[in-house]
Batch of 2 targets.
Target 1
Amino acid sequence: MISGMKILFLHGWRSVPGGVKPTYLVEHGCSVMNPKLDDEDFEAAVQTAQREFDLNRPDCVVGSSRGGAVAMNLDSRDTPLVLLCPAWKNWGTVKRLKPNSAILHSRQDEVIPFEDSEDLLVRSKLPLELLIEVGYEHRLADESSLAAMLWSCQQLVSKSSLSDDFLEVQTKQWNHHGENMQGESSYICDACGEEIVIPLDLTEGSSQKYVEDCPVCCRANIIHVSIEEDGDAQVWAEPEQDHD
Ligand SMILES: [Zn+2]
């Protein structure tokens, strides 16, 4: 986790500042600028965003839907962009994306077709791996999408450029994540032998360890989570040692 990441969040058409996505970023330690953008005048929206950008020099710009098009039309220099189902075909003049970007989009998006994001990468001559398939509708407000948004910001801010290495891990991790929507895994409780399903939080890193009481027999287990390079999660439990 990069603490105090400064994010310029550009909301979608007729959204209001303070929605679930910027709130999620704030809850995860980011400082978020979330200006109100003009819903009618696209140029005015871009100017507002540009002013905010120049004033605050964010580490990363996140743009949602129409806000994604605003982000693409900014002079954002080498600051990374994370675009959530960007509505680039509907608004703005910029029809290409720079390399230090990521796109999150649901194939079930009912407003902006998933194919628009594929199209954007193709015409930008960028690898399709920059498109992360998450969520199940346009808003991308589910936990998995929110985590992918934060994760993408962290990755792009911490790397000066996107290495092949990063691309590979990124795709496999989130494609895997997409397969089991909630990012779940399970372990066998050592005490009672029951299989316990747990949620995975990939933003907590690739090696995690914590104590949890078995929901069946209530014995304390130390849970180890190891997320492999190929995105598979290994989870195992050992009984918590008695220190008395
Ligand atoms: Zn148990």
Target 2
Amino acid sequence: MLSDLATINDHFPWFFSTLSFLFGAVVGSFLNVCIYRIPAEKSIVVPGSRCACGKPIAWYDNIPILSWFVLRGKARCCGQPFNIRYPFVEFLTATLFLTCWLIFPPAVAACGWAFVSILLCATFIDLDHMIIPDRFTVGAAMLGLFLSFLVPSLHAQSGDLFLIDNLRSVIHSGIGLLVGSATVLWIALVSEIILRKETMGFGDVKFMGAIGAFTGWEGALFAIFGGAILGTAGLAVLLVLRPLLSKKINTEDGLLGRPVPFGPMLALGGLLYFLFLQEPVDAYFLENAEMLFGETVQ
Ligand SMILES: [Zn+2]
């Protein structure tokens, strides 16, 4: 079975890549459902997709990415506009799933798919509601620990030593969970004293634990500080472009009038580390460990 799959991969290198993109688009469609229904405490299973007017949406009008363009962004039943965010989330999920497949071995790519899905749901729910539901924080942290045990290569363990490498991997994951949560907790406590208002919430503390469980402590620290820098830069660009932005973003209750959610910044930092920056960031921390402790820390 596995050798058959390897043969397919040898002869048609694009086959599994295409498949992971399509799988990502389908998962993205499901993530849209989660993003809208979970904060409203509605079931994510039943009923099937419905238009805002209440009519069910047929399967052929519900094809990820494509349907939005075929229908030109309007519902077939009543002509109400669909948010462009639906196809955007689907396309983004598909692209990130493909990226995971292209840069990681299959088992790590599968863990990456879970990680990416959690980050996307948390990001868009936080943007909408300024909360991150527990299943994307506490639940995600438990899943991160579990997957770390199952797939030691998620934390650069070869997996050659049965059980020992699994335990090393889950310990690295657990340290990432604790370092991530504790760092955000202390930033929140100190900034609350200095600024005399709540900056980061307990949701961010729990969410950062989940990111750390998938990335280890190096990724957790990068996500917090890298994410804060990227987020601040992004906000600065938005403020400069402010006169050009649509009313939706610009008004009092629009994106720029509200307090800033930190979840999306943490998610962006964690995602960049996980996909592209593991080597340079880990090397940076190793170098600094040598400087601090005077010898190579393994
Ligand atoms: Zn309708």
